[in-house]
Specification:
- The protein is of the alpha/beta class and about 260 residues long.
- The chain has a single domain, classed as 3-Layer(aba) Sandwich (Rossmann fold).
- It has 9 helices and 4 strands, in the order ααβαβααβααβαα.
- It has a 4-stranded parallel β-sheet, with helices on both faces.
- It is globular and about 50 Å long.
């Protein structure tokens, strides 16, 4: 994607947060590379407790303004491969290791809750299909993992203040509120750490199986587990989108973060 960020920097962030970050370059569309990754995890760690399927990379491929018959077909099919095939390949090779021990967790990352995506067209045919398919993949895996005492859920962040989104608005994390002049509803946005804390809360929950097969959001889980975003707030983006933004009301995050 020609971004300046690196997987090594991400691993350093993990280590700085108290874990042990190990960067491994893998093309998740190449079965041999995914299999080798899982074999390395098995050899070095001997177990896999949590699999977060968060592979995407289609931001620069889809067009909001083109219909299915107008959209570049190669780019559209590439989007589906990046969003769907990568997750299938990874789960195919990783789940045998994950189910060796009871209590394993699979988190399928997507954009949008089941409720929201079922009721709304996500602007682009290929984007809509990609993000909705992941919801179903989580549900299907939940059925297959249940007999192995495993859990699978779909999880979505809200309006994410990713590096790419901050760059789009010409701001940084330090002055992100300056973007509200151009897009007032950006006030409901959240850092990537927020959904990361949602994953951590799920992984630490001894009763995580209660969520098996469900579609969850960072804002929803924050209310249950009590974690916050980095600024101490608890943005509930999907409720805000339905009740404020999509109804045409002026931006006002009162009661939503």
């Amino acid at each position: 994607m020609d971004r300046p960020e690196t997987i090594e920097e991400t691993a350093e962030l993990v280590t700085a947060a108290g874990g042990t970050g190990i960067a491994v370059q893998v093309d998740h569309l190449v079965p041999e590379q995914v299999r080798a990754l899982v074999e390395r995890i098995d050899a070095e760690q001997g177990r896999l407790d949590v699999l977060v399927n968060d592979i995407w990379g289609g931001e620069q491929l889809f067009s909001w303004d083109e219909k299915l018959w107008e959209h570049d077909l190669d780019k559209g099919l590439r989007i589906l491969r990046l969003a769907i095939d990568t997750h299938i390949l990874t789960s195919h090779y990783a789940l045998p290791l994950l189910i060796r021990r009871p209590g394993g967790l699979v988190v399928e990352m997507t954009d949008g809750t089941l409720e929201y995506n079922s009721a709304n067209y996500r602007v682009s045919f290929f984007y809509d299909l990609a993000k909705t398919a992941v919801l179903r993949m989580a549900f299907a895996q939940s059925k297959e993992l249940a007999e192995h005492a495993g859990t699978a859920v779909a999880l979505t962040p809200g309006w994410l203040r990713s590096e790419m989104m901050l760059e789009h608005y010409g701001v940084t994390e330090e002055n992100w509120r300056d973007a509200l002049t151009a897009e007032p509803h950006f006030a409901i946005s959240e850092t990537p750490a927020y959904v990361g804390r949602a994953v951590a809360a799920l992984a630490a929950d001894p009763e995580v199986a209660r969520w098996n097969g469900q579609s969850l959001s960072s804002g929803q889980l924050a209310q249950v587990y009590g974690f916050t975003d980095l600024d101490g707030s608890r943005p509930d983006a999907w409720r805000y989108l339905v009740e404020v933004q999509d109804t045409g009301k002026p931006a006002d995050v009162t009661g939503y973060r």
